[in-house]
Amino acid sequence: MKLAHVPLLQIQRDLYSLPRGFERFRAYLQTLIDAETRDLALPPLVAMNPMGKEHVPALIDTLLAFDAESVAAQAVAEAAAQLRETPGEFKIGLAVSDDLKGGWTNRYTSEFSQCFEMKPILQRGWLSVILWTSETPSVQTTRETTLTTIYRAAYIQQHGMARTLREMLAQEGYAMAMAGCTKPALDAADLEYTREILSPHLEAKDRPTTMTCLFGDIAAHALGYPPQGLSPRAGFALALHDSVAQHLC
């Protein structure tokens, strides 16, 4: 894969420097949309909330302070070296998404789309590295999220878009393991319990089932889906565990 890191955090910070209201929203649209083609000029910025409150620029300031762009650029360079034989050419940008205080973003539906509905942004030759306002920014989080995003795209390039829960687990397990993630994690008993609960649903394609199996009952309750008795992010934890175990064998 040919990968190019494009710095976007300062662009987002500059937008938040404008008064919160129509002026900022208009500037956001002018930045997001190409004036000639009317297509997205910077697709990762779809994830940002242009009406975000003070906590969003404060988080971006933290990211800029530890030079998150350089952290991401280094991760991109490392992944590109590992994925030389994988087809595809993509630009990669960091985007801050407000899942903490804004009504703009639902974390579960947004993250689900980020993982499994990537076709539109892939077709535009972009990858979005989403950093959430509900999470404490750090070098490790920035690096792992960047690498997970890249290896997810690499998996899709080789295997196509995941449709069933089984395929989603395989995709995300691979991406997280290759990125060196250690979380989410469950103890041994919860892992086996999760495996039992997910087993009859592995060929499921519907959102209520797949999202609950991946994100756990916390997402089911938030979205009005039938709960399955699962811990938060149980499916992701099982996927990571199994992928790591497979690579160790």
Give your account of this protein's structure:
With 249 residues, the protein is mostly helical. Helix content is 55%, strand content 8%. The protein is built from twelve helices and three strands. The protein has helices spanning 9-16, 22-32, 55-65, 68-82, 107-116, 119-123, 139-159, 165-178, 188-198, 207-215, 217-223, 234-248; strands at 2-5, 89-97, 126-132. The longest helix has 21 residues, at 139-159. The model has no long low-confidence stretch (mean pLDDT 96).
Q: What is the strand and helix layout of this fold?
A:
Blueprint: E1 2-5, H1 9-16, H2 22-32, H3 55-65, H4 68-82, E2 89-97, H5 107-116, H6 119-123, E3 126-132, H7 139-159, H8 165-178, H9 188-198, H10 207-215, H11 217-223, H12 234-248
Question: How does the major sheet shape up?
Answer: 3 strands, parallel
| Distance separating the two termini | 27 Å
Average pLDDT works out at 96
Please trace the helix and strand order, writing H or E for each element. EHHHHEHHEHHHHHH
Helix content: 55-70%
Shape: globular
Count every beta strand, where a strand is a DSSP E run of 2 or more residues. 3
